[in-house]
What does this fold into?
Amino acid sequence: MTDRPVTAATRHVLVLAHTGRPAAVAAAEELVTLLCAAGIHPVLLPEEARTLGPAVRDLVVLADEVDPLDGAELVVVLGGDGTILRGAEIVRGSHVPLLGVNLGHVGFLAEAERDDLAETVRRIADEEFEVEERMTLEVTVWRDGVVADRAWAVNEASVEKSSRERMLEVVLEVDGRPVTEFAGDGVVLATPTGSTAYAFSAGGPVVWPEVEALLIAPVAAHALFARPLVVAPTAVPAVELLAPSDGVLWCDGRRRLALPAGSRVEVRRSGLPVRLARLSRRPFADRLVAKFELPVHGWRGRGRRVHERSRHDGITWECGCTPPGGVALGTVAAPSGVAGGGASS
It folds into this structure.
């Protein structure tokens, strides 16, 4: 390992991994080796570098503990969505994009799979990826008319009951106007990116990532009208806790704030998006079908059905159809030469 200073003359990529899992350690060792072979310096946090084998550990540049992004052009995350959300905490406020390699189960935020590491590194080396911006949330907690806490989220801010035996009583409002009052387990306030996470489990709609909107999904509400709502991206949804209900605020399931009775949680679109590196432009519908393994065998659409795993430009993903000509639908590669710091959607 080396802690030599990062300079502009060399390329550096920060690698984050769920090193508590042997499979993640093995993937990190392979990724480090591939990056070095491509002429890119892999940068790891000191505690994660220590989990690697001695031979691979010597190839690693140790990240600065104060500013781990110093000199990094990209962050590659090995793991599931939880690990990618940890990466989002590190890159928040910077222009450095995240590229997720899925080692988990669903991995909606991930762009590549474990078997595609070599091709992924080639794309990084040749800068053959695009960057898209995803909306995040700015969360404000009010108590007694003053701001008590601030937080943020990529997927969702969830207001939840703090004790299992008691329901949470809340008033829901949008843009300063009351919408409904109910008791239940809580309320999920989500981005379109988070619509396939907790909000999905709460019965909320799946929203395409490019849609600009905010989602409100009550959780196990004991009420006649407590349906999921989709509001404008400029709207300010708020949840107020009625006495004697105490609650808790979770942001992306990672950051927790206590909510005494009377607390008010406001959510608005943040001015700081998260930037995700994308290796292909396949439609979100194909990602949805692949990740959730949705049944599409009866589809006749624009082509015939196939039952095989498709590969496109070396990046593996599942498809359910092939149009005339044999090119899998949705597998449009990013144009060569598109730099990682280029235009975002």
Remarks:
- Helices lie at 22-37, 46-49, 54-57, 81-91, 117-125, 198-201, 284-292.
- Confidence is low (pLDDT under 50) at residues 304-314, 316-345.
